[in-house]
Each structure stands twice: as C-alpha cells, then as structure tokens.
C-alpha cells in the first residue's frame, strides 16, 4: 500500500467529499446502508428521500449522473432475480396487464430493487471519491483485521498484474496469427491458462521472498496515519444522520 493505485471507479476531483478522510466515508456509507436495510419496505416514500440524499452527495462530490448510472449496471443480475420473484413466489395473487403476480413477490422484488440500488449507489459514490490506496488505509484505520487488509491489497494488485500478463499473452498469440474461432482452438486457450497460472504462482513466490528478505514479518508498516477532525466527522455523518431521521419516520408514520 506504499504507492498510489488508481482504479476505474475512481473519478479524480477536488470536491469536499474527495477531501474527507477515507475511514470517515467508509463509516458513513456503512451506516447509511444499515439504515436503508432497516427501513420497512412499505415506506415507499422513504426510499425516494434516500435517493435524493444520494443525489445530493453526488452533487457535492461533483460526480456526473451518467458516471454514477453507468456503474450501477453491476446490479443487473440482481434486477433479473427480482423481476422473476412476482412470478415464482407463493401467496395471494393479483392480476395486472393480463399477468398473475404474487403480492408477496412484488413486495420482495421492490425490497431488493430499492435497497440494493441504494446500497450499490452509495458504494459506487464511495469508490468514485476515494482512491484505492486510501480505501485500504481507511479500513486499516477502522481496525479491520490487518490480515484481511493485506489480502485485499495483494488481491487487487495481483489482479492488475495477471490482467496485464493476459494482455501480453493475447498479443503474442495474435502476432503468431492465432485466432480462437471454434472448439478446436480450446486446447491452445487451455494451455495459455495453465501457463498464466504457473507464471502467476512463480511471481508470487518471488515477491514473497523479496518481502521476507526486506524484513516482512506478517504485518505491513503504516506509512502515513491519517486522522480526522471533528468537523470532518460531522460532515461525513450528515448522510447517515439524515437517513436515520427518514428511517425513524418510516417506522412511526
């Protein structure tokens, strides 16, 4: 975690949200998601207010709506599952547009779509305003088990290494006139996958030996200890506190 590491979800900026310490934003998003999940599904208006809160945070972070909506496509598999629920769920049924739909299935689909979309939107907004290195340091600052932080750090970095290795192997195959056009080419692709696994394993062994030779004992040194002021915590808490007020109204009204 000693060097900067950009990721595709991050959008460089100098907004007030970007300036907040990572651990403040992680805690705020975590509390916001818990509050959204705790909201009764029948309080439909509450989820509309949550969406407005996310939109306000996106405006404060200067994240365009198109950027946010494009990255919400990651939840498409969950949307497909939710769409099927009214057809396969049991219980009292209602008829709409010539279709027989389960009432409990409709509520279940709404519950998944509303809460899932808000959770994904908050997570995307967090990733868009926080560099990957800062996210890992923020988790470390929040006292997440160091081993899990190290595993996440190595996984992300080696993911990029392996992806780059795959790109070079693909270029090498193309330079030799190879194009996978059918089942008869699967053997070549299988051999490439095997070679990629061996190269990745050997690289991991070399990196581990290099780390041990430099004094690695199972813990990563903290290069910069980021602290947050009371003002920064207050700004980060604005989102979950507003959501908490909406949630309490949803349970009482």
Automatic annotation (TrEMBL):
Membrane-topology annotation of the record: Multi-pass membrane protein
Alphabetic keyword roster: Cell membrane, Membrane, Transmembrane, Transmembrane helix
Subcellular location: Cell membrane
Main subcellular location: membrane
Pfam families: CbiQ
Transmembrane segments: 20-37, 43-60
Name of the protein in its database record: Cobalt ECF transporter T component CbiQ
Organism annotation: Streptomyces bugieae
């Amino acid at each position: 975690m000693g060097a900067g590491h950009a990721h595709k979800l991050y959008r460089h900026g100098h907004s007030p949200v970007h300036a907040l310490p990572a651990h403040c934003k992680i805690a705020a998003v975590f509390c916001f998601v818990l509050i959204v999940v705790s909201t009764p599904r029948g309080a439909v208006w509450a989820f509309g207010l949550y969406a407005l809160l996310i939109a306000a945070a996106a405006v404060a972070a200067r994240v365009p709506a198109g950027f946010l909506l494009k990255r919400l496509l990651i939840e498409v598999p969950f949307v497909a599952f939710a769409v099927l629920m009214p057809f396969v769920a049991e219980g009292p049924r209602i008829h709409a547009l010539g279709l027989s739909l389960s009432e409990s299935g409709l509520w279940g689909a709404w519950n998944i779509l509303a809460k899932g979309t808000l959770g994904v939107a908050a997570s995307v907004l967090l990733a868009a305003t926080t560099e990957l290195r800062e996210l890992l340091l923020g988790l470390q600052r929040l006292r997440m088990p160091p081993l899990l932080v190290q595993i996440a750090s190595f996984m992300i970095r080696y993911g990029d290494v392996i992806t780059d290795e795959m790109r070079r192997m693909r270029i090498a195959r193309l330079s030799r006139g190879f194009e996978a056009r059918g089942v008869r080419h699967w053997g070549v692709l299988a051999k490439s996958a095997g070679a990629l696994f061996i190269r990745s394993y050997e690289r991991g062994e070399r990196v581990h030996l290099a780390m041990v030779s430099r004094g690695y004992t199972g813990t990563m040194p903290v290069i910069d200890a980021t602290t947050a002021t009371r003002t920064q915590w207050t700004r980060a808490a604005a989102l979950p506190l507003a959501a908490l007020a909406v949630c309490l109204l949803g349970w009482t009204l």
